[in-house]
């Protein structure tokens, strides 16, 4: 059974997700039928918009594994974990200083602004939107998104 009150927007992907209710768990299957996505989205009362590093790339914030990213030779656990800090605190401090400086000088991208506008418009219709992101650059908030869940 298609759940009519929930929709997920996978930014950067041109798919909708149909959620089927099963006896043990919900399962999702990709569907490239945009008309079906529009139908489900128009009826959804609760919407989650999921973003990753790509949403901030347009703002000039490089992705962690980007082609020109200076930190790509290290694994994330070598730069952003308590263990890494115990082993090489200077490298961890340098990494976070670099990321902080990047974020301070950036403005929200068109995608950040569109997401915030979507959230505001849907709120006026009595619908709820939550933005779930891996981004730590604060650009979603700067764009005007109110309901953010940062998971990293």
TrEMBL record:
Pfam families: SIR2. One of its GO terms (cellular component) is nucleus. It comes from Notothenia coriiceps. This is NAD-dependent protein deacylase sirtuin-5, mitochondrial-like. The gene is LOC104954072. SUPFAM superfamilies: DHS-like NAD/FAD-binding domain. PROSITE patterns: SIRTUIN (PS50305). Keywords: NAD, Transferase. The keyword NAD applies. The keyword NAD applies. InterPro entries: DHS-like_NAD/FAD-binding_dom (IPR029035), NAD-dep_sirtuin_deacylases (IPR050134), Sirtuin (IPR003000), Ssirtuin_cat_dom (IPR026590). One of its GO terms (molecular function) is histone deacetylase activity, NAD-dependent. It comes from the Eukaryota. Residues 27-152 form the Deacetylase sirtuin-type domain.
């Amino acid at each position: 059974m298609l759940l009519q009150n929930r929709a997920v927007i996978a930014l950067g992907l041109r798919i909708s997700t149909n959620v089927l209710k099963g006896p043990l768990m919900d399962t999702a299957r990709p569907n490239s039928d945009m008309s079906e996505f529009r139908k489900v989205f128009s009826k959804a009362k609760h919407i989650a918009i999921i973003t990753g590093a790509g949403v901030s790339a347009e703002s000039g914030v490089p992705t962690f594994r980007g082609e020109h990213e200076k930190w790509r030779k290290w694994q994330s656990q070598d730069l952003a974990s308590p263990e890494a800090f115990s082993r090489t605190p200077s490298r961890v401090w340098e990494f976070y200083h670099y990321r902080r400086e990047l974020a301070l000088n950036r403005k929200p991208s068109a995608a950040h602004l569109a997401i915030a506008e979507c959230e505001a418009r849907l709120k006026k219709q009595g619908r709820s939107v939550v933005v779930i992101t891996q981004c730590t650059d604060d650009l979603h908030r700067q764009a005007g998104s109110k309901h953010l869940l940062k998971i990293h």
